[in-house]
Amino acid sequence: MTASAGVLDELDGIRWRERGSCAADPDGGWFEDLRAPAARRARSICAGCPVRRKCLAAALLYGEEFGIWGGLDSDQRHPLDEALRHGEPLGRVVDCALRADRAA
Fold this sequence. Notes:
Elements: H1 3-11, H2 15-18, H3 37-47, H4 52-61, H5 74-85, H6 90-103
């Protein structure tokens, strides 16, 4: 099995979402105006989420255009999409983005 096949298998379906911190709060601010308090609260929930990495990887892999995924909004994900288009591996792109987000 190739590394990319492993990533796809890991992200297939929604089981990983059931372990997300957002699972208990499906109406949180993940699709609110990004300046709204609900969106800031959603980001803080994402910060400690056990499936944050998978969530961000899935958003990038499936081209999620809206909402906060893995703690990042669509504007923050845009450069990550570009890196993927230029051949960067998904795992590296996600890991770098999460490290940068934690440092910010």
